[in-house]
What we know:
Number of strands: 23
Shape: elongated
Radius of gyration: 32 Å
Helix content: 25-40%
CATH architecture of the largest domain: 2-Layer Sandwich
CATH class of the largest domain: Alpha Beta
Number of domains: 2
Structural class: alpha+beta
CATH superfamily of the largest domain: Endonuclease Chain A
Distance between the termini: 114 Å
Amino acid sequence: MSHPALPKPVHLLTLVAFPVAVLLTTTLAVSISAPAHAAEAPPGAQRSVATKRLPAVPTGPYFNNPRGSKKARFRIERQVINAIRRTPRRSYIRIALYSFDRMPVANALLAARRRGVHVQLLLNDHQDTRAMKILRARLGTNRWSRDFIYKCRSSCRGTEPDRNLHSKFYTFTRSGRSRHALMVGSANMMLNADIHQWNDLFVTAGKQRLFDQYVGLFNDMRHDYRRNQPSFRFCGRPKGAHCDDAVDRFTTRVFPKRSTRRHDVVLTMLDRIQCLTARADGSQERTRLVLSMHTMRGQRGNYLASAIRRKYAQGCDLRVNYGLIGYHTKQILGAVTARGRVPLRSTGFDFTGDREVDRYTHQKYFVIRGTYAGRPHTSLTLTGSSNWASLGTAQDEVFFTVRGAGTARRYVRNFNLMWRPPNSRAAYTTTYESFRVVRQQRDASGKLRPVPELVRRPVTTVEPDGLLPPGGSWVGD
Length: 477
């Protein structure tokens, strides 16, 4: 009896073998290509590699030029935005400012928060701009949380009426390849600061102890005290160490502090300047000073003008450039000395005829090159937020010094740019008047006889500038 033939098993094997072959082929292909990815770094290592590819925060002084190109006008703002954009996740950005209206900065901070950066801002309470409102909607106002925007009532460390948070500094725990980046200067984050004002910003990185001291200052300001807090000083040394601006690379004086003509940090600094130093050949070397000051006025402006004019009389090579000056302060500063008048120019211009200043320096820097605290060849630069005026030490302010010849040269280069017309104008008024003089002339017989004649001579006087704050460009100064 014959049996029907069974189906050949090859078909079953073929059906089973095909997907296996496909799987083997796929696995083989993955295995062959796997070496390119087999050594894939963990996420933390990937972030480390990505960070190394980013540039470090560029350090040193930066200056904008309100008369320059767009790039020159926004140079300071660009440094801040670049640092914000390169701040990685879990880092902290802390900012203390008087005024803030720049949407590009606000957008950069919002983007940073979205990628996990913690953002903290302390601001003065005189304005509420669109930039501040959009940050408040995202960050909130709880100054004890990891993210916030908060406006201090009066100054953060003081309670006097009509006082302000006038400091201007930024800290970044990380930015690009840099750690502990710090920025201190004269500029607010305002369009006005970019296009109407001359400003400066000094940047450091990698100075952890100095950085931590600024973070400590920021955290102290968060309290928004109801009682005046004491002024103090730090310089990147351990707490309690003595700071000396003639020795330390950086020093910071924190205000508020009441100043008088007997007790003023600027007077202390001026008293340490020796104007003439004997050289080996017996000649005298003059200490060189330049002052670029936003405003000098009031009782404090008067006695500081008198003190710095005295330095010129003592032989210092001094030049002063100001944005706004009180009439009495100008009279004191411009009074004649045995050497003549202090060289004086102003960056304050009124372009509309309304007597309101439209372009001006907003800087508060003072550069010393010469003998300071008994040390010849010292180069010391003072910058920060403190004006030479009555409020200059009475509220939240930062008085920041940098020792070093390279820094001083860059500040003097900026000063020379502003000193040249048309960036600045003559501060003294020169007119020509006729004077009757008597000359001796010989007559036909050879005898000398007095002969009167009129001659025209220049007359220099110290007149009021006639410029008034606040104008449209002074809003949020």
